[in-house]
Design goal:
269 residues; nine-stranded mixed β-sheet; 9 helices; globular
Length: 269
């Protein structure tokens, strides 16, 4: 059998660690592997986390984050970057500065709270997300709770998703992907650049084990962009991937289990 020598596209995640393996950089790297790209990581925080919630979180120093980023980007290079948990204003501003100097598409998942409701972003960092991070994003992927944090808009229906997208786009990202998974009915997301609208719909599965959905979706979008897809194509593929992962989500521990990042491999067996 010939040895593969082609280098896959490279995607960098800048995010926190989930010791339970369902979200954070662990989810990001699993997603990237499943979608055929080479995943790399810049660790921003360490969490003690399991199926029941976040028991502790420790932010890494700005210098450590900057050094990891430069180490990877200056030597290996990247075709896309995805950001997740950036706990403080100092980290948000440092990462935004690094991203502004990197010639690659950026997917910003403005992580504010965990699946269990634990705060993962300091309140004083919200303005830095609005004014520093979102302006460098190719795609911003807030859920409805994050929309409310960033804009004050409380979304209760699809018209509200349009208003939310307008507010997010006003901060400067090229595209907004408003995730409507918290609304009743089918799982609907809205992708828009302010002119074109793409509504993405999927069945809602009766499965509570959905830990890591946001990280997984954003990483899947970044993977598609690194593979050369345009934004609507990358987002549609990411939606299909995360829908299958939610359907196959499994129980771990005594709380909310993770989505199954390897569902395509297992479904083919």
């Amino acid at each position: 059998m010939p040895i593969r020598t082609a280098v896959p596209p490279r995607v960098l995640t800048v995010a926190g660690s989930d010791s339970g393996g369902g979200a954070g950089i662990q989810a990001d790297l699993k997603t990237m592997l499943a979608l055929g790209v080479h995943g790399m990581s810049v660790l921003t925080a360490v969490t003690a986390q399991n199926s029941l919630g976040v028991q502790g979180a420790w932010e890494l120093p700005v210098d450590a984050v900057r050094a990891q980023y430069r180490s990877v980007v200056d030597d290996i290079g990247v075709q896309a970057v995805k950001t997740g948990m950036l706990a403080s204003a100092a980290l948000v501003e440092t990462v935004a500065e690094l991203l502004a100097g990197t010639d690659a598409p950026v997917v910003v998942d403005p992580v504010g709270v965990s699946k269990h409701g634990d705060a993962l972003l300091a309140a004083e960092a919200l303005d830095s997300v609005r004014t520093k991070l979102l302006p460098v994003a190719t795609v911003a992927t807030p859920n409805l709770d994050e929309v409310a944090q960033l804009t004050g808009v409380q979304v209760t229906d699809e018209d509200g998703m349009r208003r939310a997208a307008e507010e997010i786009l006003a901060f400067g990202p090229r595209w907004a992907l408003i995730k409507g998974g918290h609304l009743p009915g089918e799982a609907v997301d809205l992708l828009t650049d302010g002119s074109a609208e793409h509504w993405l719909r999927a069945p809602r599965y009766d499965n509570r084990h959905t830990h890591g959905t946001g990280c997984t979706l954003a990483s899947a979008v970044a993977s598609g962009l690194a593979l050369g897809q345009d934004v609507p194509t990358a987002v549609a593929g990411a939606k299909a991937y995360v829908t299958g992962a939610i359907r196959a989500g499994f129980a771990l521990g005594g709380g909310i289990g993770p989505v199954d990042h390897g569902w395509r491999t297992r479904s083919a067996e």
